[in-house]
Amino acid sequence: MTGAVDEVVADRYPTRSSVRVGIEPRHDPVVWVRDDRGGPLAGDDVDRFDCDGFLTVESLLAPDIVADLRAELDRLRSDPVLAADERSISERDSGQIRSIFEVHRISTAFAALIADPRLVGTARQLLGSEVYVHQSRVNFKPGFNGREFYWHSDFETWHAEDGMPTPRAVSVSVALTENLDSNGSLLIMPGSHRWFVSCPGETPPEHYRSSLQQQVIGTPDDASLTHLADQHGIRQITGPAGSAVFFDSNCMHGSGSNITPYSRSNVFIVYNSVENTLVAPFGAAAPRPTFIASRTFDPV
Amino acid sequence: MTGAVDEVVADRYPTRSSVRVGIEPRHDPVVWVRDDRGGPLAGDDVDRFDCDGFLTVESLLAPDIVADLRAELDRLRSDPVLAADERSISERDSGQIRSIFEVHRISTAFAALIADPRLVGTARQLLGSEVYVHQSRVNFKPGFNGREFYWHSDFETWHAEDGMPTPRAVSVSVALTENLDSNGSLLIMPGSHRWFVSCPGETPPEHYRSSLQQQVIGTPDDASLTHLADQHGIRQITGPAGSAVFFDSNCMHGSGSNITPYSRSNVFIVYNSVENTLVAPFGAAAPRPTFIASRTFDPV
Q: Pfam family of this protein, just one (chains A, B) (predicted)?
């Protein structure tokens, strides 16, 4: 199954224009089917995800699996062939590797992880359909000089730049190192997934080449962020290696810099519903490369 | 009383050379006199300061005093005459005011604060002598794009660039806004004050002009920071407006960036012992301006 880029789909989440900036209610559900399909999550956990837009799991992966994935990550980061690959993204200042995309196609260890029932089963349960991998990557926030990720909704970017019609996608971030309160852990605004923040500015051509290093276009205006933070607060997600957080594609999130000596690595997988496959971008001239936004939609 | 810049004093804390980099034990006490002079701190608190190198006080200032000082800070930050004064330091990127130095000479409200017995009395008690104000400033870390302060020991800079002979100085930082776990609050390594980290690199002329925006020279090497963090851990100091932290001049500390909408302001006062007045800099060609490092040593 591949994407029909020229398909016409109504844009219910307009963004990246000079006209419209602000906060709109979300038009779509968060949990798409409430019957019990035997997914991994208990009803209370589904309710919490629905309410907060995210759910933390203290120990999703056992220590030996985490150790294997970290060793694999170290191998990938020191692979000179991969360093020259467009799927490797470097820090703007230091040149250190910041992310490696499509990691489930690069590594059998990460390929096994995306098919793990605790991950993909949760995505199916929340989205009420079969799912495919929209994006996978490992993120590496180095110690001493790890840069921040500014506030953003992933869905805003995926809608504008990739042509994802609705926020019927769920991400999971699995910690491969400890997330401390001091080393630039994920900041998230609980409940923010209920609002769509239209972002100012037109998307420049090949925007992803700079935005994956530091995003400027596609970031919310100060007034919208202040409103959301005042309404919903900010939660910092900490936890040991092996812990995970599932989060809705439209959560407002970001992370601060990391000056501690402790680097922070995680693997990030996006499951999208097979009923929500990509069309033409809603806010960009051309879709991003398929290593960032898959245009094959084969169910996991 | 003014400083004898040409006085010869042995350098027991060498730094800023290409030869010597690493960690040395501190040669001086932290608490200088242990008899009870009737200072504000209880014996347990003195012991904690001695051990950790810092002491937090949950509510040092009453809410109405905090409100007055915040209003005064807002007035200072919007004063165009002061914005053009060399004592105002701006953020490198945005041009927003980051710090205002010598604030106790600019503002009667802040002048009253430095003479408050809860502040100056604590300094006298810990340092075992009369004290004078080596430096005062207000720091303003804006929301959305507040930059980090990298790891440093204040004493390392004051010794190298100002000619402070020994770490017989204590700082107090009073929060004028809430310090959250997410808005770039102070990070400190408890117990690190017992070690002096000699820093690589020679001090360039007029170094303060860049270092007050972002410090590069006079920052510890990665190996020393990793050793200290592994040994001592990292504590993040959070608390409401009006809370305070007293800390030894040689604590290793820093803070991450602030992407939240919540700006973070504090007033920072350094009390130095009148028995530890400045001489010629130990690691720079000329002393820094007196608005950064006072060369009048009149007791408070």
A: PhyH
| Backbone φ and ψ of A49, nearest 5° | -60, -45
A288 versus B211: the higher-pLDDT residue is A288
Residue B1 pLDDT class (50, 70, 90 cuts): very low
- Closest to A234 (Cβ–Cβ): which among B182, B255, B256? B182
A6 touches chain B (CB under 8 A): no
Band the pLDDT of A8: cuts 50, 70, 90. low
Interface-testing mutation among B230, B260, B263, with chain A (most A C-beta atoms within 10 A): B260
Residue B2, pLDDT score: 47
Residue B196 has pLDDT above 80, yes or no: yes
Please indicate if any CB of chain B lies within 8 Å of the CB of A274: no
- Six token digits for residue B59: 């509510």
| Of A91-100, B69-78, B86-95, highest mean pLDDT | B69-78
Q: How far is B189 from chain A (nearest CA, A)?
A: 10
Instruction: Inspect the interface and report whether the beta carbons of B259 and A234 lie closer than 8 Å.
Output: no
Q: Is A150 within 8 Å of chain B by CB?
A: yes
Task: Chain B: give the shortest CA distance to residue A94, in Å.
Answer: 14
Q: Which residues of A touch B188 (CB under 8 A)?
A: none
Q: CB-based contact (8 Å) between B256 and chain A? A: yes
Q: What percent of chain A has pLDDT over 70?
A: 94
- Give the Å distances, CA to CA, from A290 to A79, A168, A232, B125: 22, 19, 34, 65
Cβ within 8 Å, pair A256-B261: no
Give the minimum alpha-carbon distance from A190 to chain B in angstroms, rounded to a whole number: 14
Q: Could you tell me the CA-to-CA distances from B213 to A62, B29, B209, B296 in Å, in that order? A: 44, 31, 7, 25
C-alpha dihedral, B201 to B207 to B211 to B217, nearest 10°: 0
Nearest to B185 by CA among B252, B249, B261, B258: B258
Each residue's pLDDT tens digit, B105-153: 999 999 999 999 999 999 999 999 999 999 999 988 888 888 888 999 9
Would the pLDDT of B10 be above 90? no
